[in-house]
Design a protein that fits this description.
By secondary structure, the protein is α+β, with helices and mostly antiparallel strands. Among the domains are: about 75-120, no CATH class; about 150-285, Invertase/pectin methylesterase inhibitor family protein (Butyryl-CoA Dehydrogenase, subunit A, domain 3). It is built from eight helices and six strands. A four-stranded mixed β-sheet has the order 1-2-4-3, covered by helices on one side. It has a two-stranded antiparallel ribbon with strand order 5-6. The radius of gyration is 32 Å and the shape is elongated.
C-alpha cells in the first residue's frame, strides 16, 4: 500500500502523576528531515528518537514534540536554580544594553522554559514509558499516512484511466488525420495547375506520413501508464519512481504535440498534459 507523506498523530498516556504527550506531524519533503522538541534534560533521548523514526518513515519533513504535563495538577514542582541564575544574568545584560525596562514579574520568570520543573520519582521509568508511547504515536501516524495514500491512489488511477482514453482517441483519429492531410495536399496541387510526377507526390505523402507517425510514442505512453499502475501496487517507497514516470509521460506527450497537424489532436495533447500535471501534484506527496 502506498503512503502519503502528510500525516498527524497525537497520543496521551499517564504515568503516576505525569502526563506523557507525543505529537508528530509530517509533510512532504524530498528527503527525510526530522525536527525534535524535547523537555529540558531529555536531549540525550534525541538520537534514539531519530532512529525510531527512521525505522518507520522513509521520506518527509517530520516535526516531533514531547510534552510532560501534570496528570493530577498536584505534582511536586521545583525551581531549577541553574536555569534561574542564567536567566537573571541574561535579564541584567538586556537591562544594561537597552536601559531601564519593566522588570519581569515572578510569574514571567516561572513561565520561562526550564525554570520550573516537575519532580519525578523515577526518570528512567518515565523515559521508557515515553518511548513506548512514541511507538504508539508512530503506528497511529503510519495508519494516517496509509489512509491518505489510499485516497491518493484512487485519484491517480482515475487520472490514468482518463489519460489512457485520451491516448486511445488520438490513435483512433490518426488515419483520418493522414487522409485529410493527403486530400489537402492533392487539392493544393490541383489549384496551382502544374504537372507533378505522381511518384514524387507519393514520396512526399510517405515522408509526411512518417513525420506524423506517433505509434511509438503512443505505445510508450501506454507502457508508462501501466508502469504507474504497477508501481502503485508496490509495497516499497515509490514516490521517486512515480516522479520519474511523470517526466517520461510528459516527454511522450510533448512529442505527440510537436508532431500534431490536427487541431483536435493538439487539444487532446493539451488535455493529456493537464492530466499528467494533476497526477504529478499528487505524486509529490507520496513517500
Amino acid at each position: 500500500m502506498i503512503r502519503s507523506m502528510t500525516g498527524f498523530a497525537s497520543i496521551r498516556r499517564s504515568l503516576s502523576d505525569v502526563e506523557i504527550v507525543w505529537e508528530i506531524k509530517t509533510v512532504n519533503h524530498r528527503y527525510l528531515e526530522i525536527s525534535c522538541r524535547l523537555p529540558r534534560d531529555w536531549s540525550g533521548l534525541e538520537p534514539l528518537l531519530r532512529e525510531r523514526i527512521r525505522q518507520k518513515l522513509g521520506r518527509g519533513k517530520v516535526d516531533c514534540c514531547l510534552k510532560l504535563e501534570s496528570a493530577t495538577g498536584t505534582a511536586s514542582l521545583r525551581i531549577d536554580k541553574a536555569v534561574l541564575a542564567q536567566l537573571a544574568v541574561a535579564i541584567d545584560k538586556v537591562q544594561q544594553e537597552m536601559g531601564a525596562l519593566a522588570q519581569p514579574t515572578a510569574l514571567d520568570v516561572l513561565s520561562w522554559e526550564g525554570v520550573l520543573a516537575k519532580e519525578v520519582d523515577d526518570v528512567d521509568a518515565l523515559k521508557q514509558t515515553a518511548l513506548a508511547v512514541l511507538a504508539e504515536a508512530l503506528d497511529e501516524l503510519l495508519a494516517y499516512r496509509l489512509r491518505e495514500g489510499a485516497s491518493l491512489k484512487t485519484v491517480i488511477l482515475s487520472r490514468c484511466d482518463e489519460l489512457e482514453k485520451a491516448a486511445a482517441t488520438v490513435a483512433k483519429r490518426l488515419p483520418q488525420v493522414r487522409e485529410h492531410w493527403r486530400s489537402r495536399l492533392l487539392a493544393r496541387i490541383a489549384e496551382i495547375d502544374v504537372d507533378v510526377d505522381p511518384a514524387r507526390i507519393e514520396q512526399e505523402l510517405l515522408f509526411a506520413s512518417q513525420k506524423m507517425d506517433v505509434a511509438e510514442e503512443l505505445d510508450r505512453l501506454r507502457l508508462h501508464i501501466q508502469e504507474v499502475r504497477d508501481t502503485l501496487d508496490s509495497d516499497k517507497s515509490i514516490g521517486r519512481r512515480l516522479d520519474f514516470l511523470m517526466q517520461e509521460l510528459n516527454r511522450e506527450t510533448n512529442t505527440l504535440s510537436s508532431k500534431s497537424v490536427d487541431s483536435a489532436v493538439t487539444q487532446l495533447t493539451v488535455d493529456m498534459k493537464v492530466l499528467i500535471e494533476q497526477i504529478r501534484e499528487q505524486v509529490q506527496n507520496i513517500e
